[in-house]
Amino acid sequence: MGYTKYKAFLKVVELNSFTKAGKCLGYTQSAISQMLNSLEEELHTTLLFRNKSGIKITNEGIELLPFIKEVCNSYDTLNERAISINNIDKGIIKIGLVHSVAHTWLSDIMVEFREKYPNVTYEFTLGNSKEIQDMVKNQSIDFGFMYSPVISELIGVKLTDEELCLIASPNNILNRKITFEELPELNFVCSKENEEFTLLEELALKKGIRLNKVLESPDFLSSVAMAEKDLGLTVINKTLAKKLKYNVKVIELAFDTKKEIIVVLNDLNRISRTGKCFLDSLVEKYC
Predict the structure, then answer these.
(1) Which residues form a coiled coil (predicted)?
(2) C-alpha separations of 47 from 67, 217, 224 in Å
(3) Which of 47, 48, 106, 206 is least buried, going by the fewest C-beta atoms within 10 A?
């Protein structure tokens, strides 16, 4: 029962709603409320403030939050390991991805593994490379797909190389490769999800060049749509550029932008047999 209460607390904090948490976990709003009351009694502290304006986590709740996450992650790992001892074709694999990988590689990664192990379920989380490394480090996810480099505490396995390019309106007058020196003259549209823009920005800063960001879109695909309407240029990788359904022009860069796509994990000894089979499948396909 403790695990269920912990999961209820985490889901309420995530969704900021008892009702939404209940729907997600398969309980009524009243049951979620009772679980939280019971957990607070058990821990002898108040975890959440409830009032008409909404829910707010207390300072005590903030302090205990990482420990409750760790308990739930450890329980999930224990459960997955117990299941996979006898049956590889079961369990959950938790995966974090940068947005460009989610839009390009994810379907290719999944299709073959799903054919072999149709009963395995998956949880996907999007983020930037730093966020994904943090999630792998605290064991919120089993694997992360991201751009290199990886911090020394984690294991990174190279899958492939990617190169950056620019996306522009088909009416844009640019029709040649862009040099470093020309970058300051360009206007860029990006989103917080657009890690490729960050990668280009880092390369430019090493040359003492700052990129001119004129618009920040709410998400990655809307930045591509804005580029299509000639509101600015968007930075993506070449694999994604080939898959776009938008009416856009691809503009190449005249300098080396090669970056490794890697899969990141924490500790092979903590991965279930199902997870190890997933990793083996990746290595066989891409390495």
Answers:
(1) none
(2) 13, 35, 42
(3) 206
At residue 203, φ and ψ (nearest 5 deg) are: -60, -40
What the block records as the tokens of 13 is 């904090």
**What is the chain's pLDDT, residue by residue, as a tens digit (287 residues)?**
478 889 889 988 988 888 888 888 888 888 888 888 888 888 899 999 887 778 889 999 899 999 988 888 888 877 766 765 555 557 789 999 998 888 887 887 788 888 888 888 888 999 999 999 999 998 889 999 999 999 888 999 999 999 999 999 999 999 899 999 999 999 999 988 889 999 999 999 999 999 999 999 988 889 999 999 999 999 999 999 998 888 999 999 999 999 999 999 998 887 878 888 888 888 887 76
Which pTM does this prediction carry?
Answer: 0.69
- CB distance 199 to 259 below 8 Å: yes
Domain's final residue, options 82, 109, 130: 82
**Cis (ω within 30 of 0) for the bond into 149?**
yes
How far apart are alpha carbons 231 and 172 in whole angstroms?
10
Going by their DSSP bridges, the two strands 143-147 and 187-191 should be labelled as unpaired
Q: Return the residue matching tokens 């190890």.
A: 276
N-to-C CA span, the chain: 43
Q: Find the domain containing 213 and state its range.
A: 164-257
Q: How far apart are CA 192 and CA 171, in angstroms?
A: 26
Q: Coil, strand or helix: which one is 147?
A: strand
Instruction: Give the position of tokens 């009524």.
Output: 28
Tell me if 209 sits within 8 A of 216, measured CB to CB. Answer: no
| CATH number, domain containing residue 275 | 3.40.190.10
Please report, as a single letter, which amino acid is at residue 109: I
User: Structural domain tally of the chain?
Assistant: 3
Tokens of 98: 């940068």
95 in helix, strand or coil? Answer: strand
